[in-house]
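Researcher: We're teaching a course module on how sequence relates to structure. For the next exercise, students receive a sequence and then see the predicted structure as C-alpha cells, so they can try to spot secondary structure elements on their own. Here is the exercise chain.
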Amino acid sequence: RAHFHGRTPFVPEVLSHIEQMSATASAAMPAVRAGSNLHRRTNNAKKQSRSSVIRRASTTKTKTIEAPPNLERLRILTPWEEAQPVLKSEFGMSDAEIAEAGALSDEEISEAYTMMQLCRDFENECNQAYMAGKIRGFMHLDNGQESIPALLGNAIRKTDLKHSYYRDHCHAISCGVDAGAVMAELFGRDGGTCRGTGGSMHIYDMETNFQGGWALVAEQLPYAVGAARSIALDKHLGTGEAEDRIAVVFVGEGGAQNGRMAECLNAAAKENLPILFIVIDNGRAINTFTKDVATNQEVFNQGKHYGIPGVLADGQNVQDTMRIGRAAIQHVRTKGPAILQVHTFRFNGHSPADPEHERNRKDEKRWARAACDPIKIFEESADATRVDLAACTAKAREEVRKALEFANASPPPPKDLAAQLEYPDPTGSVDYSKREPSMGLATAEEITKRIVPEATLTALKARIEALRAMAGSEAGISIGDAVNLAILEEMLRDPTTTAHAEDLQAGSSYNVPANTQQAFGTLRAADEIIDEGHFIGKALGEAMNGYRPIVELMNANFGIYGIAELSSAGNTFATTGGQFEMPMTIIGAGGTAPNQSLGAEHSQPFHAYIMGIPGLKICTASKPQEAYGLAKSMIRDNSPGVLLLPVKLMKTRGPCQVDNFLPLHKATVHRHASQAAIDAGKAVTVLTYLHGTKEAEDAIDQLNAEGYDVDLVELTCLKPFDADTIRASLQRTHKLCILDESTRSGGVGATMSALVNETMFDELDAPVSRLCMEDAPVPYATEMERAMVKRAADLVDGVKAMC
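Model: And here is the predicted structure for the students to work with:
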C-alpha cells in the first residue's frame, strides 16, 4: 500500500516502522505485489550492508553523506512512477487524472521553489527576531518541511477552508495570507493577521479562509470536519460559492494518534465530506520518537476501516510531494475524503526553548540538514534547470524583507482591544426579535420551501402550532418542550441553523431536539457519536463558516468531554482579532437537585467548571418561560452561549409567552420582599438558579409565617454578571444569601460573593451567606446526599440566621 521506498532499500534494523512494515508484510500491502520491482527491491534490502544503504540514501551530486550509526529514522522515497499504480487502485484515478496531477509546468516548478525559499527565509528571520526579543511566548518553526507549503501554494485555493495547528506560519503564507501580516502578528502588532491577539500559534485570515492556528494538539480535526460540513450545507442550501471547495486540516503523525482522528475519519466517511487530512510526519513529538508511543505510524492507512484512501509522500522531494498531493486533493474535490501523509524531517527543535535532549535528536538534525534538505535536493535535481534559482531566491528574500519592514513599522494594538473583543455581540446591544437571518427573511423562507418537502413542512408547522397552543394552555408547557419549540421555530425561520445531539432522532432525553431530523434531514440535524467534544468541535467549525449550530448535551455534565472545544469557542472571536464570530448554542440539562440520586458523575457543577472560560455567555433557566426566551435569544446571538436547564425539572410544566426574547445579560426577579419585612430588618436577597429557584419558592411560605421575606433573584445569566439587578435588590434588603448548586471552592456562589463584596460592599449589613455543596463528590444515598445538597429547609435556616 503505497510505501514507495523501493529505490533505496533499507535493512530492517534501521528502518522506520513504515519501512519495516513494507519489508516484512508485503503480502498485507495490496500495492506491494509478489514479483513486482518494488517487492523484489524491498526483499533485497535484507541482503545489503548498513553502510551501503546509508550511502545510497544520502548520496548527492557532490558528495556522499554518511548517516550516524545511531539514527533510528531515515529518509524514504516515494517516486511518482511507483505512486501511480496506488493512486489507480486506492483512489480510483484514471490515466488522464494521474497525468494531470503529474504534469508540473516550468511556472509551477518555479513558484514551488520560490515558496520553499520564502518559507525557509521567513522562518530563519522569525528565529532571529525571537532571539532579539521581538517575538515572545511559544514559537514553532517549519524548517525542513517546505515541500508542504509548496504543494499548498500550487493546489489549494482561496475558497478552500484551511485549519492548521501551532506550526502554522508557512501554511498560512502558502495559502495566500500576507507574509507581512503574519510577521506583524508574531511581533504582537496591530497590523497582524489578528491584530496581535493570536500570536505565533494562532494565525487566522478570513479573506483567505485560513481558519487557524490551533494550539491544542489535534483539536483542529473536528473543527475542520465542521468546516467541511459547512461546504456540504452550502451545497444543500444552494448558497455555496464553488461546488468543488474542500476543507484541509493539518495534523502531526503524533496528533493523528489522538482519538479525535478516528472520530473525524468516521464522520468524514459517513457524510462523504470534502476534507483532506494532511499528516505531517516528522517522526517526533517534542523530542520523543512517535514510534515509542504509537504501535503503527502508518496514518495514511487509518482510513481503511472507513473506506477513506490514503497515500504516503517523501516530503524531501518537492516534485513527488506535489504530484502525489495534487492527486489526493483532486480526489477530495471530486469524490470524497482522503489522507495524505508526508514523511519529513524537522530541522529545528520543537520550539526555540527545546533543549533537544532526546536520544540521537541532535545527530539526526545535523544529518537531515545535510542529507535531507528539500531545497538542496531540488537544486540538485534535473528540474532545477527549469528554474532561475537566483531570481526565485531573490524574490523570496525581498518578500521577507518587506514583511519585516511592515511588522517593525506596525503600531501596537490599543490596550483595551481585548476588552472590546469579549463578545461578538456586546452585552445588551442586540434586539434579538429584530435580527434577521444572514441572507434576509425572504431568501431564508424561499430556501426552506425548496429544501423541505411540502408535506414535511406542513407537518412541521402543525407541530409548532401544537406546542404554541400548549404554551398558552392552563396546564402550560414543559421546559423540554419549550426549548424544543424555540429550536423548531428558529430552524424553520433560518436555514443556517443546525442541530447536533446524541439520540437526536428520538428527541434525546427531554425532547429538546425532537422532530428536528424528521423535519430538516440528517445534514442539518445530525445524530452524533457518543463524544460531546467531537460534535461541539464540528459545531465550532460550522459556526466559523456562516452557520448557527445548536448542540444538545442530553446531560450537561457530558459536556466535560468538550471542555477544550468550549474553551476554543469562547476564545475564537478575540483570538482572531474579531474576524470570526461564533454563533453557537450549547443546551444541556444539569445541576444538582435535592434527592436526585444520580451519584457523583451526573451531579457535577458543570456550570462552575465553565465559568472561567472567557467569551462564553452562560445562562440558566428554571421555568419554561425563561427556557424558551433565553433559547430564542441565544440562537440568534453571534457569541457562543451555554443554556443550562434543571435536570430534575425538565418535565415540569408552566406558562410560556411565545415570540418572547429574553436578554442574555439580565437576572430575573421573581419576588420582592414585603416592605414590612424590610422595615423589620427581616428581608434578604436570595440569589439562586436551576433547582434552587424551586427550593427558594418552597421556603417562602414558612419564612413568611415567621415574619421573614426575600427578594428572589434567579441568576438567568451567570455570565456576564448582572450587577445592576443585584445592586437594586441589596439597596432594599442589605443582606445576601446565595443558594448554590456548586462547590464551596471555585463554585458559582464563590464568584458571585466575590463580585458583590468587591463592587457592592457598602450595601451589605452582614457577610454574604453561601449555602453550597461542600468540596466532596455528591453521594447516591439519601442520608449522605441530604448533608451535601442544600434545599428549602437550609435556606429557611440561612435567612433566619442572617436576620
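Model: If you want an answer key for the exercise: Residues 106-131 form the longest helix (26 residues). The radius of gyration is 30 Å.
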